[in-house]
Amino acid sequence: MRRLCTVLGIARSSFYYWRRTAPQRAARRAADARLTARIRAAHRASDGTYGVLRITAELRDGGERVNHKKVARLMKAAAITGLRLHRKRT
After folding, report:
1. What's the Cα-to-Cα distance from 73 to each of 4, 13, 17, 39, 86, rounded to whole Å?
2. 22-45 vs 52-61: helix axis angle to the nearest 10?
3. Are 51 and 22 in contact (CB under 8 A)?
4. 32: burial class by Cβ within 10 Å (0-12, 13-18, 19+)?
5. How far apart are CA 90 and CA 23, in angstroms?
6. What is the distance between the alpha carbons of residues 29 and 49, in angstroms, rounded to a whole number?
7. From 65's CA, which of 5, 59, 73, 83 has a CA 20 to 30 Å away?
8. What is the mean pLDDT of the chain?
């Protein structure tokens, strides 16, 4: 393992940390996938008009403890966008 890490140019402790935290990363990916499915459902229910803040409110009303920043990150990764209406300025 020492030689492999030397060839790759990484510290052995970094490799062992990466290996040790693999289950936590997998659990986070699974939780993010479930939350993304709920975000898609809320977005479809609003006919594609809801953005980050309204979807966050919908999820919170449904009992989900979630931050708007996480919803924004997942929506961006899944290419989900809300409808933007612009006011006329005179």
Report:
1. 35, 29, 25, 11, 24
2. 100
3. no
4. middle
5. 56
6. 26
7. 83
8. 93
What's the CA gap between 76 and 3, in Å, rounded? 39
- Calculate the alpha carbon distances from 76 to 34, 46, 52, 70 in Å: 15, 18, 10, 10
Residue 84 in tokens: 């933007």
Q: Is pLDDT above 90 for 76?
A: yes
| Coil/strand/helix, residue 89 | coil
Q: What is the pTM of this model?
A: 0.80
Over residues 35-70, the pLDDT tens digits come to 999 999 999 999 999 999 999 999 999 999 999 999
Instruction: Determine contact, residues 33/48, Cβ cutoff 8 Å.
Output: no
